[in-house]
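Q: Given only this backbone (310 positions), what sequence would you predict?
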């Protein structure tokens, strides 16, 4: 069974070569409603385990590919892989300047060993879908004894120690974590987390259970409920329909002050006239661009320094 896949072009992380740490079956400590894999019973350990040498030998044959990141992922939760520490050390020996990234659901951060080994990666993506225990349990359907309060505490702690690029991902499910109350709780926690970028997503692929995602407009409206100092990014485009809205110059400045936008956001939100006036603001350097991870955002020149961007 092959563990390496790609490279694939990821908007959020660049050209990514994936390592699937559970290629044969889903092995996860969550059973999320929105999972693109089939529903399955949760587990807190892998039963089918691949040898580190098998992965490294396969990886070596791909290292000449043009890649920005080597992404540790799985059919399930990659931090359940029991030799992750050893694997990261072996990858670090051969990766040269290529970055390493892991996509994790954050639950195993409560384990000291996992917490420490994640510090060795160049980039970490932590999921955090909810703060309220009841909503967390309904969306992510965690393995027994997983406590969201402990996870939140560890996410915060990790963000202050970690030296690499930390991405937080929230995946919105209609009617569950998209309420004002839950977004306010997420906002409160995220104000204490030092993140490079906070990606807001929704259901883009057929989910494991019959749940619905938000439209692009609803996701954008949800993004406005987060504090404007947070590096929030709209990561989902699938339900995106152009809004073609007129923005006066003042609207443009207010919007970018509150929420930096990518060119894709602008193409979806602004009408043609507003885009032209944005270009004028860029040529006058009232609006500038700022790179966060692999994405470029339009931001006001005046608040370039004020934003909490790591
Ligand atoms: S954590 Fe990821 S793999 Fe596990 S159930 Fe949720 S979406 Fe699926």
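A: Predicted residues:
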């Amino acid at each position: 069974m092959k563990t390496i896949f790609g490279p694939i072009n990821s908007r959020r992380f660049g050209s990514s070569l994936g390592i699937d740490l559970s290629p044969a079956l889903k092995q996860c400590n969550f059973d999320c409603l929105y999972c693109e894999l089939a529903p399955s019973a949760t587990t807190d350990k892998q039963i089918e385990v691949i040898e580190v040498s098998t992965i490294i030998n396969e990886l070596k044959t791909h290292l000449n590919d043009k890649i920005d990141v080597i992404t540790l992922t799985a059919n399930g939760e990659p931090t359940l892989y029991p030799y992750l520490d050893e694997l990261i050390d072996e990858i670090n020996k051969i990766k040269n300047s290529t970055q390493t990234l892991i996509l994790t659901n954050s639950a195993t951060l409560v384990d000291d060993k996992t917490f420490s080994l994640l510090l060795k990666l160049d980039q970490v993506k932590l999921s955090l879908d909810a703060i309220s225990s009841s909503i967390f349990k309904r969306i992510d359907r965690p393995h027994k004894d997983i406590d969201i309060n402990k996870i939140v505490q560890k996410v915060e702690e990790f963000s202050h120690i970690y030296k690499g690029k930390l991405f937080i991902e929230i995946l919105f499910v209609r009617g569950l974590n998209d309420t004002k109350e839950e977004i306010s709780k997420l906002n409160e926690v995220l104000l204490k987390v030092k993140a490079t970028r906070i990606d807001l997503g929704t259901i883009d692929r057929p989910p494991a259970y019959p749940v619905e995602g938000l439209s692009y407009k609803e996701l954008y409206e949800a993004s406005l409920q987060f504090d404007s100092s947070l590096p929030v990014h709209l990561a989902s485009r699938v339900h995106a329909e152009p809004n073609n809205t007129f923005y006066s110059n003042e609207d443009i400045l207010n919007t970018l002050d509150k929420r930096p936008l990518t060119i894709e956001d602008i193409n979806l939100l602004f009408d043609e006239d507003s885009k032209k006036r944005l270009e004028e603001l860029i040529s006058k350097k009232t609006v500038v661009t700022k790179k966060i991870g692999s994405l470029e955002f339009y931001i006001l020149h005046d608040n370039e320094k004020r934003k909490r961007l790591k």
